[in-house]
Amino acid sequence: MAPSSSDERSLVLIKPDAVRRGLVGEIIGRLERKGLSIQAMTLREMDAQLADTHYAEHLEKPFYPPLKQFMTSGPMVALVVGGDQVIEVIRGLVGATDGRRAAAGTIRGDLSLSNRENLVHASDSPDSAKREIALWFPDLG
Questions:
Q1: At what angle do helices 24-33 and 86-94 cross, to 10 degrees?
Q2: Which CATH superfamily is domain 9-140 in?
Q3: Active site (catalytic) residues
Q4: What pTM value is reported for the model?
């Protein structure tokens, strides 16, 4: 059973398209207004090696090369976000992967018109969160 305590954490990546469009504050604001806490934050670029490690399960899929090109195209903001049932809550705030189909009121539904350039990545499970946080914030453990 997944933990539902306030110490649950998730990785959130504010992707290069959101950084280019000046949406970092809007996205962080939505997380904070929901009552979630920013526990760590850094501005950095994803290099090819980090992309391959982060998306290891997708390496052989046909959509991966353009995804890798996009994700390594510029700086992004990586966050560790905490809160009660944070993974489920963030995924609800973010919305469906395809911004054209995401519900109004979600980050992607309000701000994205793309399936690939969809502004935000969020961990999809406690195991993914633990693995992804270790990749992006190795000092947090």
A1: 130
A2: Nucleoside diphosphate kinase-like domain (3.30.70.141)
A3: 121
A4: 0.92
